[in-house]
Amino acid sequence: MIIERLSIAGLLTVLLLPVGLGCRSAAPEPAVSSSPAPEPAARQFELRIDSTPPGAAVTLDGHSAGSTPVTRRYDEPAVVVVEVSAPGHAPAMLRTDEAWWLRSAAAQAARRFGRSVVIRNFHPKLTERIALRIESEPVGGTVTVNGEARGPTPLLVDWDGVTPLALRVTRDGLSSYADTLDATWWRRHRSSARLDAADNVFTATVPVRLSAPIANRWTRVGQQVTQQSVAVQSGATHQTVPAIIRGPRGQREVSFLFDTGATYTTLDSETARSVGLDFDKATSEITAHTANGVVTQRVAILSEVEIGGHTVRNVAVLQCDACRNDTLVGLLGLNVSREFSTHLSADGRKMTLTPSGQGAGRLLTMRAFLDVPVLTPTSARFVNKCDRAMRRVVVEMSQQDAKGQAVARVRTKRFTLPAGGSKDVAIDLTQLVQGRPYELRVLEGQW
């Protein structure tokens, strides 16, 4: 009986043991949390505004936001109207919206790398607004721009300052003007342009001078140049030089008195007006010492003086009505005669002029239109009173003692002067004696 009881008890014990006795029990199931997953951090949206040129005015939704660079940050993809503007430039506009923010590479990078700020940049390059004022002398020339006729001068032409602009001005009976204006031209002339605040545009003047047609004559190197014999008045002791003068309104055959004592060529008012010169509008004057004392004479510039087939261009002429008589219009000065070498026959009745090509007369003409209003120990301000630019100019300043001996001499490096413009040029003036007069000479230069 005892055995049976044990058997029954053992059986009950076996039946009551958990399944898998002798092995590891199964791991408990994890508890399911009822709290939601954390949301990603909210992003901000930053707008950075810059411009070329810098310092442009910025408005956001019509309200001033200062000058570039400007930065604004928003908590959501904001809808903003941005305007960037500068004087003399066309404004640049931008309108942001949700798509502009979220479809950008900056937004994609923020999502991918977990960045908290989406940064967008707006950097417009503002385009200058330019109006070219085409003026011609004489007025009424027909203006053609890139092959399209625009009308007579004076005329305003809009331009972006970059796209090449083929400009041509013509008038019947006169030589035509042609030039191509590009970004390089604008960089040279931008400083002289005037900002018209009312129209928000830079206005630059393009002066055009239409003269009588000019026939170019070329002489090969080494070729003998035809000499011009200058007639001598019968029974007189002076020489007269036949010449052709050309100005803005045509040409005229004249005769000059050959005068080695005159620095500059002279014309009377009537003859000057007949070829388009007006001494009343002259921009420069010269003080000269004459037999009648010190006089001030106005200086104009003559397009050409032709003698014996050789042409001297850009000639300074002084007004001198007293220098004219029945046969002569004035004096042939050194600024023309120095372009020739001269030979006088033994009997004094024949003079031969041979073109020298040295340009000495040209340098005298440049000096007539050069002024120096400001001097400092280390620089001089040179002013070009002519409507033609001077290039590769070298100027010397010298002082002499009572015996005419040079006691000091300084010179500049090569420089360029724009038409009607000025420039401060470095020159060591400490070598000159203060208070003592100096002589100004142009040693090199080209028109």
Task: Please supply descriptive tags for the structure shown above.
447 residues, Immunoglobulin-like, Cathepsin D, subunit A, domain 1, 4-stranded antiparallel sheet, 32 strands, 43% strand
Q: Can you walk me through this structure?
A:
This protein is mostly beta strands and 447 residues long. It has 4 domains: 79 residues; 80 residues, Immunoglobulin-like; 135 residues, Acid Proteases (Cathepsin D, subunit A, domain 1); 78 residues, Immunoglobulins (Immunoglobulin-like, Sandwich), CATH 2.60.40.10. Helix content is 12%, strand content 43%. It has 7 helices and 32 strands. Strands 17, 18, 19, 20, 21, 22 and 23 form a 7-stranded mixed β-sheet that branches. A 4-stranded antiparallel β-sheet has the order 3-2-5-6, with no helix packed on it. A hairpin with a 2-residue loop joins strand 2 and strand 3. The longest helix has 15 residues. The N terminus is likely disordered.
